[in-house]
Design goal:
Low-confidence stretches: 3-18, 418-433
Helix content: under 10%
Number of strands: 33
Distance between the termini: 8 Å
Strand order of the largest sheet: 1-2-5-8-11-14-17-20-23-26-29-33
Number of helices: 4
Mean pLDDT: 92
Length: 433
């Protein structure tokens, strides 16, 4: 028995040893050089603190091969201004490029990232968080894009973006891009993960823009098989969307999404002048591929109108996009059932820069479900802008999804609760004598 207890204690020490030896390293200033020095000293589980100050970074900070916390003094206190070149590869155009790894918490917190004046025609972003972390958190940050996107999240990632602000008033760069891994092929060959931790969560954030410059702007976008949960956010004069398997070439559509318990507030005048005509927009959420659930969202629209909570489209029926061509062709089941369209799910694996095997990948029917969404107190649903392919009643259903249950809120990385199972002594063993 003593031997068994000793083994159990040893295992517990191994599981919990890292936090016992974690240290806090404070950068000398908020400059990229000083922060880089502190990050180079950090090991797994450490915390790097960036002091208050306003610093323009002209050199990229690369973080690879370790997990730790990078934390500023708070929004509006630690301010990093983007002065990094947006040139092509091998230049790295973001102020922070974090290639995360699995094994522990990777956290970015307490910093304002402010866009600079360098033009970026490809929307490469101010901060890029990539890799394979299944425990990442980006929180209490502020992104003010001026010439490029605010934050890009890309890879085989599970985690949460919370309590942050995306101010797109400059209307020159989206707030947040969420992409999956690689081309998105693996995500499309795997089953749904709705209601589980195996997603990127975006919760309790503010997305806003200056409505006097235009009556809407895009806050969130993404593709390459992304699995995204957007919940309990406030959206001010902005929409959210995803891409399909079309305009992005080899990159495939978003795979799945959950949009629920969000609030939109949208005054649609484009000017403070009351003589400007009212505006109209088709939907709060634009979907061009994948499946999921959309429910319990509310919107207050003034001085204009939004007709639907979501609109669905499929672009390959009207145009040809390399390498997929125009529907119907070899990638499609028929002219009314096309590759990666809204309302389909898991299929056979496609791979390679030139995608193979060529042919309909046997994607299963997997409708989108919408329920209990309201605009100005009126229950509204979805519309298809391509009704021959995306069919309401087949691909889009106005009812709760059977068996669906949302993942715990707040996300465990926000609440501080542990997802590590308690260590339980094995049963059925004979006592030592």
């Amino acid at each position: 028995m003593h031997l068994l207890l000793g083994i159990l204690v040893g295992v517990m020490l191994l599981l919990t040893a890292e936090p016992l030896f974690a240290v806090t390293i404070t950068a000398t200033s908020c400059s990229s050089a000083h922060v880089g020095d502190a990050v180079n000293q950090a090991v797994n589980g450490d915390t790097v603190l960036i002091p208050a100050g306003r610093c323009t970074w002209t050199k990229n900070l690369k973080i690879t091969g370790k997990y730790f916390t990078l934390q500023g003094a708070g929004i509006g206190k630690t301010i990093v201004v983007d002065g990094v070149s947006k040139g092509s590869y091998p230049n790295v155009p973001q102020v922070i490029w974090w290639n995360s790894i699995a094994g522990g918490l990777s956290r970015l917190s307490g910093i304002t990232f402010e866009g600079g004046t360098i033009t970026d025609g490809n929307n490469k972003g101010m901060v890029a968080f990539e890799g394979s972390s299944h425990s990442f958190r980006i929180d209490h940050t502020k992104f003010i894009p001026t010439r490029t996107a605010g934050l890009i999240v890309r890879g085989n990632l599970w985690g949460v973006i919370d309590h942050s602000t995306f101010d797109m008033s400059a209307r020159n760069g989206y707030g947040l891009f969420v992409h999956g891994e690689g081309y998105g092929d693996k995500a499309w060959a795997e089953g749904a993960t709705l209601g589980t931790e195996r997603n990127v969560f975006v919760e309790d954030n503010l997305f806003t823009q200056d409505r006097t410059k235009g009556h809407y702007y895009t806050a969130i976008d993404g593709w390459t098989g992304h699995r995204l949960v957007v919940r309990k956010n406030r959206f001010e004069a902005v929409k959210v969307a995803n891409h399909g398997t079309e305009t992005s070439g080899r990159w495939r559509s978003a795979r799945q999404y959950e949009y629920y318990n969000n609030t939109w507030v949208w005054n649609m005048y484009t000017s403070a002048t009351p003589t400007v005509p009212r505006n109209a927009y088709p939907a709060l959420i634009g979907i061009r591929g994948g499946t999921g659930v959309i429910y319990n969202n509310t919107a207050t629209i003034t001085n204009g109108s939004v007709s639907n909570v979501a609109d669905f489209n499929y672009l390959r029926t009207t145009n040809s996009y390399s390498p997929w061509g125009k529907c119907q062709n070899s990638w499609d089941l028929s002219a009314i059932r096309c590759l990666d369209q809204p309302g389909v799910g898991q299929g056979q694996l496609i791979s390679g820069a030139t995608p193979t095997p060529v042919g309909w990948p046997q994607e299963v029917n997997d409708p989108v479900y919408l329920w209990n969404n309201q605009i100005n107190g009126v229950s509204l649903g979805a519309v298809s802008r391509n009704s021959s392919v995306v069919q309401v009643g087949r691909d889009v259903l106005h009812q709760p999804k059977p068996g669906y249950k949302p993942y715990v809120y707040p996300h465990p990385l926000v609440s501080g609760s542990s997802q590590r199972s308690l260590l339980v002594a094995p049963s059925g063993l004979s006592p030592f004598r």
